[in-house]
């Protein structure tokens, strides 16, 4: 089993004719993802990487049983693209684009909640269920099928940690990138709940960072989980009130500090690694 995407997911690429959309379509196809169609207004009838291109999502949906869409649209057009996908009945949307306007992101999430749509991102590396399907921009070669779920706010940190899991013989069920923006579709708690209910997943890795309260909120759910959780947090040396890369990675009014997150996670029973490559050793103690 896997969460969010699996071998049966039929994928649409919105923005397939752009440089990023075209390149990552080729990589998803190479991984075995069932990319059925692409959408690029005014460019219907073309084929990109062998994938047929349509002018609208509705038109693509008429031809293929699309279940998920990945968006490579410039930030100003993401809201319209997401709304178009949801209006066509697509229930899983991955938004790779960063710098989506805040109010647009809020509108997307409100619409998604109303229509029970799972949104990953914005500003995400995507989601991959190793050996089954990939919707995102992550490197293909570092993943291996297995029993550990990974959920992360950071793309590069998740790559490093997942690579160390793989070389230590620990495979992954699904790896999920929440996204680095202030407003994203899924929380740590949302994804942890999916992993808790997934029969294949036997342990979970949470990759967090300073800023916001997502990790503290997740600790409340971790306290109820039956599966072990190992965490790594970035930002131990970051000064207060300074934004560090991600829009959500800022400590404000004493909240979202490294120490507060570590304390909350450890109190909930999670093991917290001091360095990324220590995650694998802590997992082996749990499994």
Automatic annotation (TrEMBL):
<dbReference type="GO" id="GO:0004776">
    <property type="term" value="F:succinate-CoA ligase (GDP-forming) activity"/>
</dbReference>
<feature type="binding site">
    <location>
        <position position="159"/>
    </location>
    <ligand>
        <name>substrate</name>
    </ligand>
</feature>
<dbReference type="InterPro" id="IPR005810">
    <property type="entry name" value="CoA_lig_alpha"/>
</dbReference>
<dbReference type="GO" id="GO:0000166">
    <property type="term" value="F:nucleotide binding"/>
</dbReference>
<dbReference type="InterPro" id="IPR005811">
    <property type="entry name" value="SUCC_ACL_C"/>
</dbReference>
<dbReference type="GO" id="GO:0009361">
    <property type="term" value="C:succinate-CoA ligase complex (ADP-forming)"/>
</dbReference>
<keyword id="KW-0547">Nucleotide-binding</keyword>
<dbReference type="InterPro" id="IPR033847">
    <property type="entry name" value="Citrt_syn/SCS-alpha_CS"/>
</dbReference>
<keyword id="KW-0436">Ligase</keyword>
<feature type="binding site">
    <location>
        <begin position="17"/>
        <end position="20"/>
    </location>
    <ligand>
        <name>CoA</name>
    </ligand>
</feature>
<comment type="subunit">
    <text>Heterotetramer of two alpha and two beta subunits.</text>
</comment>
<dbReference type="GO" id="GO:0004775">
    <property type="term" value="F:succinate-CoA ligase (ADP-forming) activity"/>
</dbReference>
<dbReference type="InterPro" id="IPR036291">
    <property type="entry name" value="NAD(P)-bd_dom_sf"/>
</dbReference>
<keyword id="KW-0816">Tricarboxylic acid cycle</keyword>
<feature type="binding site">
    <location>
        <position position="43"/>
    </location>
    <ligand>
        <name>CoA</name>
    </ligand>
</feature>
<comment type="similarity">
    <text>Belongs to the succinate/malate CoA ligase alpha subunit family.</text>
</comment>
<protein>
    <recommendedName>
        <fullName>Succinate--CoA ligase [ADP-forming] subunit alpha</fullName>
        <ecNumber>6.2.1.5</ecNumber>
    </recommendedName>
</protein>
<dbReference type="GO" id="GO:0006099">
    <property type="term" value="P:tricarboxylic acid cycle"/>
</dbReference>
<feature type="domain" description="CoA-binding">
    <location>
        <begin position="4"/>
        <end position="100"/>
    </location>
</feature>
<feature type="binding site">
    <location>
        <begin position="96"/>
        <end position="98"/>
    </location>
    <ligand>
        <name>CoA</name>
    </ligand>
</feature>
<dbReference type="InterPro" id="IPR017440">
    <property type="entry name" value="Cit_synth/succinyl-CoA_lig_AS"/>
</dbReference>
<dbReference type="InterPro" id="IPR003781">
    <property type="entry name" value="CoA-bd"/>
</dbReference>
<dbReference type="Pfam" id="PF00549">
    <property type="entry name" value="Ligase_CoA"/>
</dbReference>
<comment type="pathway">
    <text>Carbohydrate metabolism; tricarboxylic acid cycle; succinate from succinyl-CoA (ligase route): step 1/1.</text>
</comment>
<dbReference type="Pfam" id="PF02629">
    <property type="entry name" value="CoA_binding"/>
</dbReference>
<comment type="function">
    <text>Succinyl-CoA synthetase functions in the citric acid cycle (TCA), coupling the hydrolysis of succinyl-CoA to the synthesis of either ATP or GTP and thus represents the only step of substrate-level phosphorylation in the TCA. The alpha subunit of the enzyme binds the substrates coenzyme A and phosphate, while succinate binding and nucleotide specificity is provided by the beta subunit.</text>
</comment>
<dbReference type="InterPro" id="IPR016102">
    <property type="entry name" value="Succinyl-CoA_synth-like"/>
</dbReference>
<feature type="active site" description="Tele-phosphohistidine intermediate">
    <location>
        <position position="246"/>
    </location>
</feature>
């Amino acid at each position: 089993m896997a969460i969010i995407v699996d071998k049966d997911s039929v994928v649409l690429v919105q923005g397939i004719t752009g440089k990023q959309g075209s390149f990552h379509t080729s990589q998803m196809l190479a991984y075995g993802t069932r990319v059925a169609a692409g959408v690029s207004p005014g460019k219907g009838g073309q084929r990109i990487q062998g994938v047929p291109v349509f002018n609208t999502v509705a038109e693509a949906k008429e031809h293929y049983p699309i279940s998920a869409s990945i968006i490579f649209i410039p930030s100003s057009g993401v809201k319209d693209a997401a709304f178009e996908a949801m209006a066509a009945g697509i229930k899983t949307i991955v938004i790779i684009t960063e710098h989506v306007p805040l109010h647009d992101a809020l509108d997307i999430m409100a619409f998604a909640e109303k229509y029970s749509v799972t949104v990953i991102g914005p500003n995400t590396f995507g989601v991959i269920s190793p050996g089954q399907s990939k919707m995102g921009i992550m490197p293909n070669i570092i993943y291996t099928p297995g029993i550990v779920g990974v959920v992360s706010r950071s793309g590069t940190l998740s790559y490093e940690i997942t690579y160390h899991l793989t070389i230590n013989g620990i495979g992954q069920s699904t790896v999920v990138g929440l996204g680095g923006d202030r407003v994203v579709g899924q929380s740590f708690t949302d994804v942890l709940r999916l992993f808790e209910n997934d029969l294949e997943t036997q342990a979970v890795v949470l990759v967090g960072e300073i800023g916001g309260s997502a990790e503290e909120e997740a600790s409340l759910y971790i306290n109820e989980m039956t599966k072990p959780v190992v965490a790594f947090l970035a930002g131990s040396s970051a000064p207060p009130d300074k934004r560090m890369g991600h829009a959500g990675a800022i400590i404000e009014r004493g909240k979202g500090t490294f120490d507060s997150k570590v304390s909350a996670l450890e109190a909930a029973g999670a093991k917290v690694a001091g360095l990324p490559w220590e995650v694998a050793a802590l997992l082996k103690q749990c499994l």
